[in-house]
Amino acid sequence: MSDKLDLDHLRQWIGKTTEASDVVTKYLVMGLRATLFQEIGEPKAGDAAPWTTHWCLAQPVFPMSQLGPDGHPTRGGFLPPVPLPRRMWAGGELEFFDSLRIGDEAKRTSKIADVTVKSGSTGTLCFVSVNHEVTTSRGLAVRERQDIVYREMTSTQGAAPAKAPPPPPVAQHRESHVSDPVLLFRYSALTFNGHRIHYDRDYVTKVEGYPGLIFHGPLQASFIVEFAARLRGGKPPKKLAYRGVQPLFEGSEFSINASDKNGGMELWTANAEGQPTMKGTATW
Ligand SMILES: C/C(=C\C(=O)SCCNC(=O)CCNC(=O)[C@H](O)C(C)(C)COP(=O)(O)OP(=O)(O)OC[C@H]1O[C@@H](n2cnc3c(N)ncnc32)[C@H](O)[C@@H]1OP(=O)(O)O)C(=O)O
């Protein structure tokens, strides 16, 4: 475990809150629909936005001088100053109560819920969980827990996997697309997310040691939510718990998969080899 991690200090951030609000616009909805491979249409005031539109709203805006080396705002403001260099979106839980609609003013309240340190197969991991609630004039729209993970640099990060992966799972429902850097750029722009691992190939390969640009966790979760809702006649899951299990890299086919289970669904995104990259369990 990293000796630089002062968990007692980092846990002083638990309970810290912040609020922000934003308006759902027609062009945001069109841009997100296009990025999620949906029909763009000509949306008008009052029309429902994609279910995870809240991730595009009221994102933190900082001057360039206050960004860290990874392109995110310097840590130690709302988020604790975790001294591990590689940030990832680990997973979370989403609950949907109402759609966001064009013209809505949405208010998000956020609270640091937990900070923990674990020892993973890839080294020391520091998880920061943030609870968010998004409301409109009609009431609560989305409640979520977002888990961010910070990883250390390891000398083996570029190494080949130690053992062969299991056979890929077979899905009852499957949709596939081809990814490219434009898709990732579009999602970074829609979410005002400056994280370099999504668009700066030199940085992601030479500094963070991954083999290529990385799909955003929330983009994969958005595909999962929209796929689940489509398979259930437009109704989003009441609850989706999801976890990124390995990075999904640019430049190849990827798929969104679902199988019915216990009245709900198991859903996952998968890479070109069919191996899951994000797994979720949805209930209605
Ligand atoms: C936006 C945005 C950033 C991004 O979008 S980054 C891209 C999306 N995210 C990913 O691609 C993450 C994919 N996942 C991984 O690379 C690995 O799963 C990860 C997170 C590095 C962990 O792998 P390990 O093999 O090191 O971990 P273990 O499986 O050995 O587990 C150790 C303990 O940690 C818990 N854990 C593991 N993964 C998760 C997870 N995703 N969420 C929550 N907890 C996790 C696991 O249960 C073990 O816990 P124990 O209590 O059992 O010890 C942006 O930055 O804005």
Automatic annotation (TrEMBL):
Positions of the UniProt region annotated as Disordered: 155-174
SUPFAM superfamilies reported for this sequence: Thioesterase/thiol ester dehydrase-isomerase
Pfam families cross-referenced by the UniProt entry: FAS1_DH_region
The EC number(s) this enzyme carries: 4.2.1.153
Keyword Mitochondrion belongs to the record: no
Family matches, as InterPro entries: FAS1-like_DH_region, HotDog_dom_sf, Mitochondrial_HTD2
Keyword Oxidoreductase among UniProt keywords: no
Protein name in UniProt: 3-methylfumaryl-CoA hydratase
